[in-house]
Amino acid sequence: MAAVEGAVLPYEHLCNDLRWGAGIDSDPYRWLAEERTVTEELRELRLAGRVGLVVDLTCMGMGRDASGLARIAAAGRVPVIASTGLFADPFSDVGDRDVDSLTTLLMDEILNGLDGVGVFPGVIGKVGCWGPKPTPREERFLVAAARASLRSRLPVATYGQDGLGLLEILLGQGLPASRVAVHCTGTDAGAARKIAEAGAYVSLGLLDLGPDQAARIALGLIEDGHADRLLTSTGLSRVAQVRKYGGPGYGDLFETLLPRLRAAGTDDALIRLITHDNPLRWLTEGLS
To answer: I want to staple 45 with a disulfide (CB 3.0 to 4.6 A). Which of 15, 51, 122, 164 is the partner?
Structure first.
């Protein structure tokens, strides 16, 4: 990790397919299967010196393609971190397993690799909830993620509207807050501040929030002294969002959010803290 230069994108998807969980055959807003297009976009960002590492948060139930990730990383010349995890109820095919069984399932991927192709995960995520609050099964997913994190020392990334509630479940298992990145899906800057105050990372996905809202939350955290708890990423997850089809592409973070932060007085050192130092600390802190 010490050799990583350029920004780290800690909340991205490079290939996924959520159509099965939604019960539909085709929807450009629910799948991403453009390996060549993704590779070309990332290669351009790498050659421009913008991106040094990408974290793909496509876990079990999301149409993960570990072999595809390896090909994208090699051809795009961008290191990619893959993930394990149990996403959310509509996209789960693990039945009603108990926490011990789910933890064993996660540990098997952590220790033996993903999909039998020799790719090992560096993150547990994304885990969380599909609705406003986690269901009992989603709570088990979160508990299993926390226990697997404690055993493996891998960080955890969440998704869902109830960010504080998700964090509370993880912390309830004894997981240090500094191992958790809580994805911010709403407009509540107060909730983001509470997540940071707890010691967890606030993860802003630009395409989820929009540049103005993401900038407002980011600048609020910076003003409150929580710049070291902030993660930013483009958050691309759908084929409709790649540049080839008129979307903003993976580079949108550099075109919209970061210019807004700079215009508000955020200097280059602080930008590097947010886009480089923070995500590397989140990824590696438990491994030292």
So the answer is: 51
Q: Is residue 50 a contact partner of residue 7, using CB atoms and an 8 Å limit?
A: yes
Token reading at 249: 């592409």
- Using only the alpha carbons of the chain, give its radius of gyration: 17
CA–CA dist 232, 175 (Å, integer): 22
Q: Which two tokens stand for residue 283?
A: 């990824």
Cβ contacts of residue 91 below 8 Å, gap of 6+? 18, 20, 21, 61, 62, 130
Per-residue pLDDT of 56-78, as tens digits, reads 999 998 889 999 999 999 999 99
Number of Cβ within 10 Å of residue 268's Cβ equals: 8
121: left (phi over 0), alpha (psi -120 to 50) or beta: beta
Tens of pLDDT along 67-117? 999 999 999 999 999 999 999 887 777 888 999 999 999 999 999 999 889
CB 113 within 8 A of CB 106: no
What is the C-alpha separation between 34 and 27, in angstroms, rounded?
14
